[in-house]
Amino acid sequence: MTDTTQNTRILLASRPHGEPTADNFRLETVPMPQPGEGEVLLRTIYLSLDPYMRGRMNDAKSYAAPVEVGAVMEGGTVAEVVESRDPSLAVGDVVLSHLGWQAYGMQPARQVRKLDPQRAPVSTAVGVLGMPGFTAYAGLLEIGKPQPGETVVVAAAAGPVGSAVGQIARIKGARAVGIAGGPEKVAWLEELGFDVALDHRSPTFKDDLKAAVPDGIDVYFENVGGHVWDAVLPRLNTYARVPVCGLVAHYNETEAAPGPDRMPRLMQTILTKSLTIRGFIQTEFVKAHYKDFQHEAAGWIADGSLQYKEDVVEGLENAPEAFFGLLTGKNFGKLLVQVGDDPTL
Amino acid sequence: MTDTTQNTRILLASRPHGEPTADNFRLETVPMPQPGEGEVLLRTIYLSLDPYMRGRMNDAKSYAAPVEVGAVMEGGTVAEVVESRDPSLAVGDVVLSHLGWQAYGMQPARQVRKLDPQRAPVSTAVGVLGMPGFTAYAGLLEIGKPQPGETVVVAAAAGPVGSAVGQIARIKGARAVGIAGGPEKVAWLEELGFDVALDHRSPTFKDDLKAAVPDGIDVYFENVGGHVWDAVLPRLNTYARVPVCGLVAHYNETEAAPGPDRMPRLMQTILTKSLTIRGFIQTEFVKAHYKDFQHEAAGWIADGSLQYKEDVVEGLENAPEAFFGLLTGKNFGKLLVQVGDDPTL
Predict the structure, then answer these.
(1) Record: fold of B6-127+309-338
(2) Measured in whole angstroms, how far is the alpha carbon of residue B156 from the centre of its chain?
């Protein structure tokens, strides 16, 4: 039986230097919080693990404040209302929330969004119908702007963002080339209908990519960096667009890479090819495009043109290990931690 | 008396390795060309010298084909019609043309544009009312998109592109910070109304820039690269836009710069600050915006809000030397070679 007087949570115990380790986290048990007026007490069902969390572990200025040492690790969650002090939510409602790495948590009711389990599995609210799906949708359509017949290349293509990018590119009439790590992921991309799927671990990757884009690359959706970017850069066409939403290959770097310094050459390539390189965080596009996304993506899921895969790890205590795997590409599909039972299944 | 049976021209004699030298050019005299049907024979008045010409001397793929070894160096010109075999142009007309580095040349009449000397000095057709002015206008307004109160920083600000960028930024209600080499240029930028003008040769340049942009940089108009870019990059605001139309500091580089490799760090800055870095050549915007530019710029010149300076070198034979100076910032204002008399003065 669940202990409803105690909450379990995972804190940032210390900041990592380079690759994070188990020592950077601490699991603790504390008394159950009590909701105040306008708040709800929530029981976590799914915790979403995402690469951006690595950035939050650093004490560095970025688009969001870092997690403080001693604070609960941040994260999106799907949770069930167990106590409500707001008329808008009832016990048993399932909501999209941002409780972080913990079994229970409180949030003001107006900061969570009630989910309709009839519409789609509630886990998709942190996946294909949530932040990762919207990152793909907004970055590809608002920055990448693929035209019919153009070639779109996406890295980490078996992840929740990349798999949506490639499928939406095809829905818009573009050619989709997906890059992933290992034959199993490559096979799945082929199932999804990617025009070409490539394994970046192959010793012939650079040549494979060249052969896969005979007309060059018009849109490269960047969420990896590293040797994939190195192989893509010479293949970009004039006027190519590069939405940059992640650089997971570099998140654990502690010092600058050895020379030569390729920054001046990159700037010259941007100039001579009239490239657009554009960093973004999906929040920027929420106001203008989130509603359309929800509507369109639900339609594509219903008609089978947008498929997704989830990689579910059981138990909050296994979140750190699962997160380490995410940073090295071990997950296959959207990585979720099942923290508690899903009452909608 | 002018010899009308002979033409003088400057050819690309060999490709430079690094900094170009006099040996890379050859001056020769050849018989005067004879225009065919639909063509005009033109006498060069002004030859425009521009940094992009350095790129044309290389045998490298870029946005335009290189000049072949043994061919006339490329370049925009203001010229007088001396013989016409097309009804649209008469002897004595002055036209914007692209004859390259030569005293006479032929072009199909439909490829040149007749100038109205009453409207503005004809030299401005290759300056503030021509390619450099339009580069400033299109890059700043279509890519930089400065909003009232934002901070626009421009390098090579005493050049024909940079001086227009700063002044147009102010016309649009933005703060303009100009960067140039030496106190004389800095003083001129202050005369033009730049909010701040900085000397990049100053030992305190980095700190001077920091002090000049207390609210950070929203638009950096890049036409230089090098240590100016290094100083600007940490000061860019979230959502800053960087139109890149030139990188003159790097044009003579023959090998990659020594490490560390700053490319991954640049990509991370693009990500965390949601930057837009966008290379461009003004030709891309001609169809949509050239007419508006001509109209608006003429108005700004007339009301004094857009001023310009010309740096005129006498004699075609001095073009190579003047061009070397252009690549190291010796010119002050739009660099022109006066190849022949200007009949409109």
Answers:
(1) Quinone Oxidoreductase; Chain A, domain 1 (3.90.180)
(2) 10
